[in-house]
Structures are given as structure tokens and as C-alpha cells.
Amino acid sequence: MREHRDSVTAIGDALVARLVELEPTKPEGWSAARIEAREALDHHVHAVVSDPVGPAWLATLAAHPNGMIRAIAVGALGSGHDPAHQPILVRALSDPAANVVQAALEGLTAQSSDEVFDLLVTLLNETDRDRAWLSRGAAQRIAETSDPRRLDVLADALGRVRHGAAHDITRALSRAGDLRVAPVLIEHLRHRRPGRFAAAEVLGNLRVAEAAGPLIDVLRESDGIQALPVVEALGKLEAPDAASAILPLLDHDSSDVREGALLALNRIGGPLATPAALKATDDVHPAVRARAFRVLAKHGDHRALGRLAAACEGWHVHTALTGLVRLADDSVALTVVQVLLTTDERRVRKLAGRILARIGTRYHLPGHDPDPLVRRAIVWIIGQRADPAYIWTLTNALEDEDELVRSRAAAALGRITHDKTIPLLTKALRDTRPRVRANAATALGRTAPTGLRSLLADALVDPHPAVQSAAAAALRATDH
């Protein structure tokens, strides 16, 4: 055991001596040999930290005169978050070398952070420019504590922190979801503090409606790129008054800013959204154009019909059809029929079908198309409209070679109140496929003709259970 301990310390001491020997005369002087020596020592300390004799040797290194050696030792002791090593890390928080303090911060447990909360707050608010970067590690540890002051401390610090700490504080405050920090954050906006953009992000995540006015004021005074968190926050708040302040960003040089502005407008909506999005559909950047079509699809009025219809011939067809479903205007019927007949995308075909079902079927729908997918869609559209004028089309569809076309035709006939549908559905009860027979039985139940039980007699003893169930359900529906 003693030989093993001596071996561990001997190798480690040699590596320490080598690194100290290569200490540069100038702070920025890092030779290849020194980099190699540091990596070798770092590898060794992490290898022996779990060794029975390793921690004791590392504890002596934590008090070494050389700051880099101390930092390496403290980092190794904290790597496993072992409670036994926490006292050494706590002492290291007061080390004059910033890299030692950082190593200690990385290894602190939540329990230890609770015990040194006030010291962490001091590190968070560090004003020394050479040590200010420690604020990020301090913010991370404060966020993990159970101290009731932690959110107030982080919210207050957000107005002035830099060096990456703002990101960690923003995430911590957003996840906590405590609205009590909102007044402090709004003050950061009103006083134009350095952390106001991070504060804006938190206020948006927390959906603080009272922040809309201060956010708009900050947006009007900010550069586009810098103000993106403010734009995003206003979008999340869905603040109608923000639209006029966001519009000028659509002329910004950065495509990210223009896209961010459209994203916010998409959430806000209002009368300014349509003309702004119409203009943006001509943007040189494809991501901006795509975002503009989404705005038109969600908020566009009659002015957007032409642009959405034109977009059905390009990459944005799905988005355009989403808007046309909402608008449901007869003027685009022929365009939508063409999409229905030519697309090879199922989701696009379904949207086209929904539009035609809403606006009517007086526009030409082919009675027979070579593609069974198109024939299925056409029969479904006719069924949704329940138009007796298309009984002849459904009659032919019942003879279609495609099972789903016949099945949908039977279902469509059940939506039409007309004497001619009864013999057609009765014939469909003898189809070779159980799906068609089941739909025919259900359709007869909807029309509820006289003598329904007699018509469904064979279906009630059909070899397929789905047909039997459909027939029984049809009879039950007419009994109520």
C-alpha cells in the first residue's frame, strides 16, 4: 500500500515539478511543452482522484504556491462532487487566483452552495474586470440553491452582468416562472441597463403583459440585431401596440431580423400583418419569404388570396393551402382543383380537398381520374358537400376498381337525402370487400329508409364482424 502511495505521489510530484519549471516569464507565453505538461498533470490528477491515496495528495496540491497547480487540484477534487472534498472547494472560493475560484465553482454541490450563498452573491456582483467572468459560474450555483433570496438576487444582477452570466440567469428565471421578479426586470428596461435585452427575454417567457410598453420603448431605441430578444418577447406577449414598432425591422439588412419581425407579427396579428407579409413575400431571402407566407396563412384577409393562390404552384403550397382553408373563397377553386389533380403529397391533397369541400363543388371535378388517390379525394369532397347533383358520379364510383373509392362513395351516399341512394346502397351491401359493405350499412342507417331491418338482414349475418357491427349500429340509431 505504501509503495502504491509513493508511486502515485512520485509520478504526480514529477509532473507538478515539470509544469512549474516551464512557467513562462510572460503570462501569454504558452509553449507546446508547457501545454503538454499541463495536459499530462490534468490526466494524472483525474486518474488518481478516485484512488484511496489520491485525494490526500490532491489536498496538498490545493495549497500549492502556483495558482495553476491549485486550480488543477481543485478541479479534480470537485469533478466527482464528493461531499468529503467540498470543504477544500469552499476554501478555494476565496483564492486570489480567479482560475482556482472557477474550478471551485464548477465542483460545488447544491448543499455547499447553500452554505456559501453570500460569497456566491459577492462573486456574482464582482466588479474587477479581471475577475468579472466568474459571475457566470456564481450564477449557475446560485440558481441551484434553495435559498429564498436566489431569484431576487439573480433578477437584480441581470441588469448589469456580462461574460455569459446573463444566459444562465435568463434560463434560471424563466424556468422558475416566478412573476415576483417582473418589477425588477421592468426597471432594467426603463433605466436602459446593460442587461435589459436579457430581461426582455425573461419577461416574454413569463408572459408579463405589463412589460409591453417598456419593451416597445426599448425596441424603438435599439438596433435590429440587438433588439431581437425584445421583438421575440413582444411576439410572445401578443401585444397589438407593438406591431407598428416592429414593421420598420422588415427593412433591416439582416435576414434574421426580418424573419424575427415576421415571427412576432405572426403571433400578434392585427390589421398591419397582411400588408407587411405581402411585401415580405418578395424578400430576397427564402427563410423570410417562407415566414411571410405563414403570416398570410394565419392572418391574411382577402388581399392575400391572389398571393396565396400563386404560391400553390411552388414550394409554399402547403402553407398557402392552410391559409386558403381558412379564407374559403370561391375565387381560388380552379387553382385548388389543379393542385388536387397534380400533387403527390398526401397532406397537400387533404388540404385541397378540405378547401373544395368548404367552397362548393360547382367547379369541375373530373368524374374519373387515372390516379386512385385523386378519385378517393374527389369522392370524399362530394360526400362532405352532400350534393345530390353528384349522385351519378357516386354511382360510377361504386363500381370503381379501388376499394377505398367504393367505400367512400357508399359513405357519401349516406349523406345525401334522395330516393336514388337506397338501391345504390343496397347493391353496395353485396360488394366483395367488407369495408364497402360496412360503410353501405352505416349509410343506410343514416338515410333510415322504410324497411331498414329487411334491407340489412344479410348484413346482420355477414361473415365479417365489422359489417355485422355496422348493421347493428345502424338499426340501433334508427330505434332512438
From TrEMBL:
Domain of life (superkingdom): Bacteria
Pfam families: HEAT_2 (PF13646)
Protein name as catalogued: HEAT repeat protein
InterPro entries: ARM-like, ARM-type_fold, HEAT_type_2, PBS_lyase_HEAT
Single Gene Ontology MF annotation: oxidoreductase activity
Lineage: Bacteria, Bacillati, Actinomycetota, Actinomycetes, Pseudonocardiales
Function: Catalyzes the hydroxylation of the N(6)-(4-aminobutyl)-L-lysine intermediate produced by deoxyhypusine synthase/DHPS on a critical lysine of the eukaryotic translation initiation factor 5A/eIF-5A. This is the second step of the post-translational modification of that lysine into an unusual amino acid residue named hypusine. Hypusination is unique to mature eIF-5A factor and is essential for its function.
